[in-house]
Amino acid sequence: MKNKKKAIVLISGGMDSAVCSAYAKKDGYQLAALHLNYGQKTESKELKCFENLCDFYSIKDRLVVDVDFLSQIGGSSLTDKKIDISDADLESNEIPSSYVPFRNANILTIAVSWAEVLGAEAIYIGAMEEDSSGYPDTRKIFFKAFQKAVNTGTKPETNIEIKTPIIDLSKKEIIKVGKNMGVPFQHTWSCYKSSGKACGKCDSCALRLRGFQQLGIKDLIDYEDGF
Predict the structure, then answer these.
(1) Among 119, 94, 81, 100, which residue's Cα sits nearest to residue 12?
(2) Which of 87, 103, 160, 227 could potentially form a cystine with 201 if both were Cys, beta carbons 3.0 to 4.6 Å apart?
(3) For position 165, which CATH number holds?
(4) Helices 15-26 and 43-56 meet at what angle, rounded to 10?
């Protein structure tokens, strides 16, 4: 085990990061898990799901970082109590209010720092370009640019690859792949509004529900009446 290559998996507690954990495990890495508390409205629920997923995948190296400056900066309905989380409009091309400005860059920066300390060779992030809410920091072009920054800004002997195994998949495909890989979707959370029963109305809930419905599979988490 000492000589096994290491990878950091960014585990938010959602479906996408859970599937990424399965991919990293399948690729033969020893996993370390990173989770950020950034003042999101479902922070406690997401943290619980992070711990459950780490337990499921037997991940011992866990790092939970509080980055409340993202909520201090504001500008997102996920962190700003003055901004309501809107109902989903999956046909819209506009970036929704749930976008947290440059969040993935902040997460990746922390992950790269930790990867240098651990000697990790890869960072897995559950970004998806096609079937997402249109966030600008979930696109291939963003990760390609960030990879250049990593290569330039780390020690010469450091070699860290940012891996985005689900970036070309739809939510339906992610659920199908995850089911085949034994991902415990019952231990994941997607709702932006609630930590009790999922609202079924926000962008994240709508994308999740549509994926399960397209496959004809029942989602095992609890939703409010009508979903």
Answers:
(1) 100
(2) 87
(3) 3.40.50.620
(4) 20
